[in-house]
Amino acid sequence: MSDVIRLLPDSVANQIAAGEVIQRPASVIKELVENAVDAGATDIRIVVRDAGKTMIQVIDNGCGMSETDARMAFERHATSKIRSADDLFALTTMGFRGEALPSICAISEVEIRTRTADASMGTKLLIEGSKVISQEPVMSEKGTVFTVKRLFFNVPARRKFLKSDSVELSNIMREFERLALINNKIRLHIDTGNREIDLRAGTLKQRIADIWKNSINMQLLPVNVDTSLVKIEGFISRPEFARRRNPLQFFFVNGRHMRHPYFHKGVMSCFENLIAADTQPCYFIKFTVDPQTIDVNIHPTKNEIKFEYEQQIWPILTATIKAALGKFSAVPSIDFETDALPVQPLKDGEAPEAPVLEVRGDYNPFVTDSYRPERVDRNWESLYDSFKNSTHKENSGFFGGRPGTEFPKTKTLADSFAEGVRGKAPEWDESDQKLMDSQDRFELEEAEDLKNGMTPICMQYADKYIISPSENGLLIIDQHRAHVRVLYEEYIRKVENMNVVSQGIMFPETILLDESQRAALSEVEDELRKMGFALEYESGNSWNIAAVPSMLKNISPADIIHRILDSVTEESANYGKEKVTENSIVERIALVMARSSAIRRGQHLSTIEMEHLLSSLFALPDPGLTPEGNPVFCILDEKKIDKMFGI
């Protein structure tokens, strides 16, 4: 048998490496800007065309490269950052592997112009798909001009993975924000073709204010501590400015952006009992540690970093944040600089009138309108009589249905509910949503049923699950997922039938969008209009929400718009698909609307509500899974129950 193992050519090896290092145009910008930072640049300009698919250009005023270095920089594992393996544990530069430039030139057309300060002429190098086309002397400014064209031109499968221009541009802007925050002492400029952003060199707080431009600097509290183990500096937001959607959360270590769930949990623990459960604070925190105590060589993107002393850093981080919250009184306080409220003075001889409170005769201060006792007193004698007098013992009892109700063995699971205790359920519509909001009538009907000796077919457990019998076993249904499935199908059906009704808002709500969200908005603007939303541009980063779909009830319009934009820019949402089509965007918006409108886990439901929800669910063609593929219910059959009891 002949030898079959061969050494791969460098061009093939570079394409393999590019699959990990260069995932999208934003990855190219990250690698090139980090190289410019390592070169000592104080001014970096980025030019992007067609969201990076046509051209990406990075211009810096760094040290530049000689003719030999410019050629060697594109060789695999060629780097000026390290000399030995020991240098991996004392890194002070962004790059060190020597994989970025070879990976970029393996999947694109690259042109580089560079000159060092002591050279009279620069050099120009052209590379296409890892093949050097030409290299010649050229007049150029000190520094480097790196131009990447036709990204993924020789890897058509990877090019198909790219999303639309607006989504890719949104990813570029998010990467630009991270680079701008960590390199706040460097002037950065980006030109996307439709918009230019010029950020001055300054402090971290100035950089934050320049990027978001919505008075966020007035919401921030400084964090600063310096110990022998770690130096922590940056800013956290005041508790009253915690966000439900799109919180600005950034960790940096030794000049490098990182994701660290452990430290994130530490920050969140400091805000317990200070913010609502469904909100998160903003934070911009920089760590400075000994390079020998961290390992950045974990992932090709270098965003995952291991700390040797992370358990020791945790209490330092939490104590610093708690001290900042206490030191700057991050609680509501009296503002003595605010003008006093106008008070009408009393005339001579007049006395102030005491307020008159109207109190109902049956008023009880310990019982509110939303109060609901956890335990309901039931007429157990009536229930027992109905159990004894039931004509069908197998379907009687607390779970068994009303007296005389029978479910033939030939019925399917859906038929059992569609033709169940209250007759076949109609299709879900907006009137049913109102029905879900009316509790008093449900309780009256439920009490009347119990009075007449009728037993419910459903019961609720832990205010999260609905339990009901079926011929296949005991059904356990997730009430939130069930309602999401029902609402999702209803929204899609209304869009297909062009039956979406838009409802204007008397006082339009204003939302603030950053650059990445603005790019995402242009992607879904037409689909939002089809779903019943109307957004009007005001000025700067502000938009007004003028109308929302009438089928949305008791939901913040700004919150749902942020949810939709986040779902569009989610990196993994469309990985492996051809393109983000119009239909997929509508489906994504419908799913966000369904999640926002659906009943929550922990919400009490009456018997009629549960029966109606299940009837609507099992009338669907595929009730078993949510739109994203999560199970809606599970079945506990007789064998499993017997096994639990050891029968």
Structure description:
By secondary structure, the chain is α+β, with helices and mostly antiparallel strands. It has 19 helices and 22 strands. The strands form five sheets. Strands 5-4-3-6-2-1-7-8 form an eight-stranded mixed beta sheet. A five-stranded mixed beta sheet has the order 9-10-13-11-12, with helices on both faces. A hairpin with a 6-residue loop joins strand 3 and strand 4. The longest helix has 18 residues. About 14% of the residues have low confidence.
Keywords:
about 650 residues, 19 helices, eight-stranded mixed sheet, globular, five-stranded mixed sheet, alpha+beta
Give the gist of this structure.
By secondary structure, the protein is of the alpha+beta class. It contains 19 helices and 22 strands.
Distance between the termini: 61 Å
How confident is the prediction overall: mean pLDDT?
A: 77
Work out the strand percent.
15-25%
By secondary-structure content and strand pairing, the structural class works out as alpha+beta
Radius of gyration: 32 Å
Fraction of helical residues: 25-40%
Largest sheet: 8 strands, mixed
The total count of strands amounts to 22
In terms of per-residue confidence, which ranges show pLDDT below 50 for 5 or more consecutive residues? 331-339, 369-378, 386-412, 420-428, 431-447, 449-455, 571-580
Helix count equals 19
